[in-house]
Fold this protein.
Amino acid sequence: MLTMIAGMAPAKADEAVPLLTWGACPPAAAGAASTAAFECAEAEVPMDYATPEAGRFTLAVIKHPARRPAERIGTLFWNPGGPSDAGTEYLPASIHGFPEEVRDRFDIISWDPRGMGGRSRPVIQCFDSAAAEAAFAETHFGSGIATTPEALAHEFEVRAAFNAACIARGGELLKHVSTADNARDLDLLRRALGEERISYYGTSYGTFLGATYINMFPSHVRATVLDGGVAPSAWMGNAGEDPALSTFVRLGSDFGAVATVDAFMRACGEASAKDCAFSAGSPAATRQKWAALLERARTGGIVHEGEAASDGAIVSYVMSSVYLVDPLPGFDRFPGYRAVAELLQALWTSDAKAAPAPDAEPGTQPAPSAAAAAETYVTSGGRQLAVICGESPNPESLAANVAQVEASFRRAGLSPWPFGAACRGWTARASAPYAGPWNVPLDKPVLVIANSFDPATAFGSSVRLAQELADARLLPVLGFGHTVLLNPNRCAQDVVSRYLVDLALPPTGTACREDRSPFSGG
């Protein structure tokens, strides 16, 4: 029996089901994946499910129709993660990661989550315009990454000012963008399609949304694939979790990032310099070259685009760039492993004499591409924070924020990132979150899949996710990158096909190996 937690209101039985009118999608933006093979619609959902008359969100919905409609099995919903990623943009860019048979036999549907942008509305905004937000970030955050307690304290105070702007402008919206609200939207979309049961595929944060949905609405689940897992208890800070740590430190994202960078160097060293520009001829020699590069950077001996690049900034660039082994249209932030290796080699051959005097605040580290870092920060704005900080416990005091970041540095070694330490001063809370239980029985086991070297959702988080659900089978994929869907593996695609089409799980202990080295070029 599903237990309701305090403050959680189920959707009312008489709630108006949205009418979906499918038509051609708006043209794709320049450089984005084509939407020609897709259909789009809009759905109105309650802003507050406890008070449906209080306002509405209009959700943009996108569908890739089953290519063999006569053999159609049903609907497969996909959430790309974020938690602010827009399905109308990501589904066209990611569609080839779904197995051929799944594309043949399912309508694959995604949507732009409430408040998160894309084509859904209204949207959370922290400033009157994107330009005003960019100006704030450029003026207050600058081009550095904080590494000292003093610089961290300054950064967290600036973040508190940013968060205050988000809360002042976001108002009531901030209370109604929780994962549970998105799960209620998903179930209303299910009803709009006339489906008794749906299949679900979640990547990254989408795995937490999936875990929430299947535990809130277990009778409406046919099959569930969770790829690049978020451990629910860590996200929600359930009993036994350390509230002194931020969300992503509890999830072990710092460990995952550092392990992935180390594996990147190993694979690079196994390749020739033709295939991996940074290779030194062997894994050991390439790791030594990497350590030497960072040591040179510590003493100001690395220059990129006219600026001195520090060791922490270089590590941060690599960690944030190794999400995709091969570049994909629509994912311009992630250049692919070969491009990362080429940049590292360019840094290795740089001439420190060309560097001007560093122009950064004391205790900060200029990034290899400060403009790109600022753009990434501004693009996410307060939308991700509205979900994360609104429902997931994070350190509140300045001292606690600094301490947990330093703890992450110590335990993960090279990590320069303040993983998730962005909730300083965030006071808006979700009005109706769901915090478990996570082990509500289902008719069919869940399939959890995970790359062994995922820089964002560490493999250990997927292990915990599989353990916390009532019945789940874990498929380890001995490969690279953030989620298997975005870094396709033939073995894993076969397993996913058999599960979604035939509801057949692989034997316990099954694992998939990588199809090729990330630098093989094949």
User: Anything to note?
Assistant: The chain has 17 helices and 14 strands.
